[in-house]
Amino acid sequence: MTDHTNADTLRTPIVAVLGHVDHGKTSLLDKIRGSAVSEGEAGAITQHIGATDIPLDTISGMAGELIDPTDFDLPGLLFIDTPGHHSFSTLRARGGALADIAVLVVDVNDGFQPQTEEAIDILRRTGTPFVVAANKVDTTPGWNPQDGEPIQKSLEAQSERAESMLNENLYEIIGQLSDAGFSADLYWRVQDFQKNIGVVPLSAITGEGVPDLLTVLMGLSQRFMKEEMAIDVFGAGEGTVLEVKDERGFGATIDTVVYDGVVRNGDQIVVGGQEEPIVTEIRALLQPRPLEEIRTEKKFEKVAEVGAAAGVKIAAPDLDRAMAGAPVRVVRDRPVEEVVEEVKAELAEIEVDTAEDGVVVKADTLGSLEAMANALREAEVPILRAEVGDIAPRDIAVAETANQDEHKAILGFNVDLLANAETELENADVKLFTDEVIYQLIEDYETYVEEKQRAQQETVLDKVVRPSRFRILPDHTFRQNDPAVVGVEIISGTLQNNRNVGAFEGNEFDRAGQLSGIQKQGDDVDEARAGERVSIAIDGPTVGRDIEEGDTLWTEIPEKHAKILEQELKEEITADEREALSAYLETKRKRDPFWGK
Questions:
Q1: Which residues of the chain have a pLDDT value below 50?
Q2: Residue 253 and residue 399 in one domain
Q3: 83 among annotated binding-site residues
Q4: Coiled-coil intervals in this record (predicted)?
Q5: Is 100 annotated as a binding residue?
Q6: Considering the entire predicted model, what is its pTM?
Q7: C-alpha distances in Å from residue 434, one per residue of 152, 373, 409, 413, 487
């Protein structure tokens, strides 16, 4: 590679901002944008599609003495707006994360929340370097705001009490990072950012600490990512689809982040699609109009070309089947088949292993689909089909074909149920789970499966013959036969009415008759438990001939029931029922070792 030291060939680093909903991601981006606008004339900041480009001069203006612009040859920073609030870092570029660097926003009072954990997981998996923005320092009781100041300057203006309360919260977050396997400290104490995560205390409302965040991001990008920022300025553009959107007058368009090379109007491009890669030609490249012009009818202006790194809306025919998270490649001087194969290969990396039977998974982007598949694999939940996009009627049809009832389910991450699928869902035997937190989604599904299994076991348990051993009490014969009525004590297990009972003669079970009634203190009952004394009526035997006072009798267990009890329901029955079962099986198996197996 040629020496890429002049600023022209270093692209802007792509920064993703992620974190738990309402921890302040949007307000932090708004603050950075707002300060950038007030810092320079309106042209200081360019809005891209799905991204905001902040040039180096504006950053150094905002960071004041923290940044000397001559130390940097990167052009600035490109902040990506996460579509929705889910984790942008699940969008990819050439198999890695699309973002070069990430800001994980954590509310300093709330610490780690479900989506924080999820973001951390994705950052760990993609190996994306990140800094933690500990937001909302201004909500510390007794805080004395210093608008827009670097955080250490601001800390000097705080009372000891406010500072120690803030420190307590900050160390809590540092501890949580450590539990997640990352060594972290307040950013000014970090010697080596490659080994330690810097925590930047800030407020998206007062702007305190924002200069520090920009400084740390610039420093990290400059020191560790210069090679990755070196791009071929004139090469064929490469990018990733953020969102597929219908625009009036243009039809389906793709909001794209271009991370390498140049994209020109009229270029032939290949875009990852839901079935096959889409080959099409760019009809228009659209950028948002500058802020002061947004009031005009047209929200966008057409541009002739964009170079990395940039967010741009691409209008072209046939984009309605494009997928969020899929690659976009300009063809230019190569055979189109070669580019199609490249796109296919990149999509194949994200192919999800599917099984003969399993659940249907839908997610909003390829990256989140991949994250879902990984999480389900860890939870040992098989997947029947996994696709990007909203939940459509055919997903319900596919889910209904699952063999096991518990697999007749659709797990949707950050997607909607299409209107034409609602009635189908009502009439189908399919359960829908949707959430914006992956592991919450999986937890809900697992709870449902457990409850379903428990309910199934309970129905089986109701039908299964329960084991019991009981003894005929001396001097408790109330009637000798037709039916014989005797008083008994249950030694172990549960004696149920209408069951066959008998005794073991050696290892042979000898059926005596069938129970036709159980009375407890004069009332008819369906069953009696271990330790209870009841009187029972048995159709068949005569006391004194077939059964005797003092005899030990058993409930006769059909072989199929014995097998279910031993193999599936052992945990569901009581300890004394288990004891009765074991003794029964042991005697039976002396004669036939495989009985009930």
A1: 1-7, 41-43, 84-87, 292-296
A2: no
A3: yes
A4: none
A5: no
A6: 0.73
A7: 43, 15, 11, 6, 58
